Amino acid sequence: MNLFLFIASYFSIKSKTLVCITTILDRMNYRATLDKASQFIRQLRIDEALEQLILLVKFYPDDFELIQRIYKLAEKKPLSKAYRFICFHVFDLASSKPDFHPILLDVFIDYKKYYPEAHHPKDFSKTQIFNLFKHLAQSHLQQDALLFLKEIKTAFAEDMETPEALFGYCESMIQQRKFIRARDELKYLINYYAENPIAHHAISSLKRIEPQIL
Q1: When you count CB atoms within 10 A of the terminal residue's CB, does the N or C end of the chain come out lower?
Q2: Does domain 121-214 sit in CATH 1.25.40?
Q3: 3-state class of 116 per DSSP?
Q4: In angstroms, how far apart are the furthest CA atoms of the chain?
């Protein structure tokens, strides 16, 4: 082995060792923080427990088990900053994992219950609007999905994410056999975004469902 390969091999092994050590330390810190939060819960010091758990979720944003643990605690005080934090944290996540879909829907339903005047699309960030729209379109909450659809078509008509979001909505409508709504939105997509490559997919989808519409 020449000198160059020896040095490269040495630093590669050293780098992997450092990564391994960092991972172990991270998990130890995770466990220690979780244990501290559990101790606070046993002492009924819920606010302090939430502080520890929220600190963790900022480092592990898509840890669904941790998210649910925080949510169950925070929901006891739905008007608290902790509750709003975890709700908006969930709405911010762009996860495609199957386990995440029911979590988001449950949180959204609860959020509507606790904040009946504050769940209009205008109350959310762009990221949250697109994330919520995607999941609402795949659910039974179709009236909410329509509100987000309207907001996206007006406030974000020129946004580069909009054509794909609208096409995803159309596909969800097709899967739910809501062919007339799918047809109307596909036609809108084809006309408004004619220059976008996704319009070609919309044309194909429209041809596919037209025989299903009497």
Answers
A1: C
A2: yes
A3: coil
A4: 76
